[in-house]
Design brief:
GO terms for molecular function: purine nucleobase transmembrane transporter activity. This protein is mainly alpha-helical and 456 residues long. It has 20 helices and 4 strands. The strands form 2 sheets. Strands 1-4 form a two-stranded antiparallel ribbon. Helix 8 packs parallel to helix 17 and helix 9 packs across helix 16. It starts with a helix and ends with a helix. The mean pLDDT is 88.
Length: 456
């Protein structure tokens, strides 16, 4: 049955590999179950309700990805978009979280139309292969950067913006020990990969977590909630209380639009729309490139189904009570483990459902245990840059700018924007645009991106 549904042999994979890949993807994404409620609670939303909505939206979106496209990509409420939801739309603009959910819901409906009318697919296909390779490499650096932050190996600096962990001071037994364990985790995963141990990334996460538990039992690691370092020892394993979902479910349709300025609301929808469409496209490009899923023309087969799954999940998530649900870059961890079909996605989705019951256990897995996986996945994805012709500045320079912008601007969509603008203008001004046959859609995207920076 699984072979018939997911075409495992055709995709050169098997059930065990797909299950392991789905579990790995979930383990690297599970942090969203803790992070999303914390962020959206700043908008006045109930934490438990958001956690349940996050798990359900992730299951729905990921299951739809498997059903519509048979790809190993997982979906969940996106980082960055949830912060925009809570701190900008609700915090700075003063709208209720119900209004913000309505903006997300409408954005999803617009995405459904765009996906059915091939607009998003056309955008994907119009991007040159050089930029697709650059996006894959840039996402690799971005993922690694997130991992370094989650491990608190890279921290804030007032003088240089960022600096490395000092491993000294009062927080050594919490932040410092966690950072050291993350470094050990990278080493452990590296050894397992060199030895070609199947499921090495997942094993690395679990081993690092066990080391953290041993350190806490020995008094070496001391939890410090003020520093964002919590106990890694599970105190509970299951919970069957789902009643809090009523605090957010369906509230999108109870939004009070009194005093809402139409132009501002449209601007909010456009902001969600813009970031989501290019984050999703960037993620699909990057992960698909790494998995060699793009055809000889750089196109992703069945992309319409993948984009439709993303769009439907966005509106469904808004009804449940969470910010924009989108394709996650952490899907690359499962792809790295060999995941190639929707069975990987289904596995991840089912685990999100189980997380509703085992949420106390899953939420105990520390970020310093999942961070090494993100760092190693970044290493795998950066390898695509070797396919870029850096000897040709008209190809190499825009690619470099796109790669650099993603981690430094902390945004996949900004990296795409800078890459598209620089690629089009550089080739147009130097007279190479005609020989490279840059599509008219690339010119349209360039103008739109420039207008975005001018007016937004």
């Amino acid at each position: 049955m699984l072979e018939k549904i997911f075409k495992l042999k055709e995709n050169k994979t098997d059930v065990r590999t797909e299950l392991m890949a789905g579990l790995t993807t979930f383990m690297t994404m599970a942090y969203i179950l803790a992070v999303n409620p914390n962020i959206l609670s700043a908008a006045g939303m109930d934490k438990n309700a958001v956690l349940i909505a996050t798990a359900l939206a992730s299951f729905i979106g990921t299951a739809l990805m498997a059903l519509f496209a048979n790809y190993p990509f997982a979906l969940a409420p996106g980082m960055g978009l949830n912060a925009y939801f809570a701190y900008t739309v609700v915090g700075n603009m003063g709208y209720s979280w119900e209004i913000a959910l309505m903006a997300v819901f409408v954005e999803g409906l617009i995405f459904i139309v765009l996906s059915l009318t091939n607009v998003r697919e056309a955008i994907f296909n119009s991007i040159p292969m050089t930029l697709k390779y650059a996006v894959s490499g840039g996402i690799g650096l971005f993922i690694a950067f997130i991992g370094l932050q989650n491990a608190k190996l890279v921290v804030n600096s007032d003088s240089t913006l960022l600096t490395y962990q000092t491993f000294k001071g009062e927080t050594f037994h919490s932040v410092g020990v966690g950072a050291i364990l993350a470094l050990l985790g990278v080493l452990i995963i590296g050894i397992l990969l060199v030895k070609r141990v199947k499921g090495g990334i997942l094993l690395g996460i679990l081993i690092t977590w066990v080391l953290g538990i041993l350190c806490e039992l020995a008094g070496i690691y001391v939890p410090d909630p003020d520093a964002g370092m919590y106990s890694v020892i599970p105190t509970a394993f299951v919970s069957f209380d789902f009643t809090s979902l009523g605090q957010t479910f369906g509230k999108v349709f109870q939004a009070d639009f009194a005093g809402v300025r139409a132009l501002d609301f449209v601007t909010v929808i456009f902001a969600f729309l813009f970031v989501d469409i290019f984050d999703t496209l960037g993620t699909l490009i990057g992960v698909a490139s790494k998995a060699d899923m793009l055809d000889k023309d750089g196109k992703l087969p069945r992309i319409k189904g993948a984009l439709l799954a993303d769009a439907v999940a966005t509106s469904a998530g808004a009804i449940l009570g969470t910010s924009t649900t989108t394709t996650f870059v952490e899907s690359a961890s499962g792809v790295t483990e060999g995941g190639r079909t929707g069975l990987t996605a289904v596995t991840t989705g089912v685990l999100f459902l189980l997380a509703l019951i085992f949420s106390p256990l899953f939420l105990t897995i520390p970020s310093f245990a999942t961070a090494p996986a993100l760092i190693v996945v970044g290493f795998y994805m950066i390898s695509n840059v070797v396919k870029i012709d850096f000897d040709d500045p008209s190809e190499g320079l825009p690619a470099f700018l796109a790669i650099a912008a993603m981690p430094l601007a902390y945004s996949i969509s900004e990296g795409i924007a800078i890459g598209v603008i620089s690629y089009t203008l550089l080739n147009l001004i130097t007279g190479k645009a005609r020989s490279k046959k840059i599509s008219w859609l690339m010119y349209v995207l360039t103008v739109l991106f420039i207008l975005k920076y001018v007016f937004l």
